[in-house]
Amino acid sequence: MKETTDTVDTGKIRTTLNKNKAQISLSLKLCVHCTLCAESCFLYMHREKDPVYMPSHKFINSLGRLYKKKGNIDRKGLEEIREVVWDRCVLCTRCYCPMGIDIPGMIALTRGICRDQGVLPQFDEE
């Protein structure tokens, strides 16, 4: 198990964001907030249609947040993003975007960023 620290390697986050800049930027521009993706998300449908479970909300409030901040985020912010991409998404890939945004791919990319920083879900209490 990787030991967590309070530091975040923002340079490594920026490198990942820059490597995927074209796809991230286009995806953020393509999202018209139509909410059609929500109907295909079983978590959204079974959690009383709570907006925090909408695929577009998860994408914008995780990778979109990192991208807007250019990777400049602290551990607390990364923990909040971890909650979005792991606790509110099972990565079932059912979410459908009529604009062609690869929401599961964006969530997976964000999980990778969190994983690289040692920010992972805790499954066991120690």
UniProtKB/TrEMBL annotation:
Q: Where is the 4Fe-4S ferredoxin-type domain?
A: 28-101
A GO molecular function annotation here is: 4 iron, 4 sulfur cluster binding
Keywords, ordered alphabetically: 4Fe-4S, Electron transport, Iron, Iron-sulfur, Metal-binding, Transport
Q: What is this protein identified as?
A: 4Fe-4S dicluster domain-containing protein
Origin species, per record, is Desulfocicer vacuolatum DSM 3385
